[in-house]
Amino acid sequence: MENLHDAQQIKEQGSIDVELGLLDLESKAKIESISWQVTAAVVDFCRGMSYVPEEVKELEIALGDQYLCNFSVFQSLLDHWALGQLFPIMPVHHLQRAPDRNGTLVDITCDSDGKVTQVHRPARC
Asked: pTM surpassing 0.85?
């Protein structure tokens, strides 16, 4: 956790230094790249432990893949807004396989909040 916090602090200081004109963008990009590598190493290290800090769980989600989708939800938008109804999303293939990666579904249309942030997994029969 100390390595993670050090990497985050150096990344933040790099952003400040760019704003102050003390660091160029190429150097900032290198700092961010190393910071994400350290973050991924910490998440991998914590995988499978009996206790994983909440901060690391959140980072694991942040490191997940982003899948661009085209959700046009004008027809379902009122149900979601008024009733809190979930917008159903389901894969069209590999239905018998459990997911092996974290990911976020990101909407590219103008009628959405931009990403799916709530997951509902129905009980299996």
From this structure: no
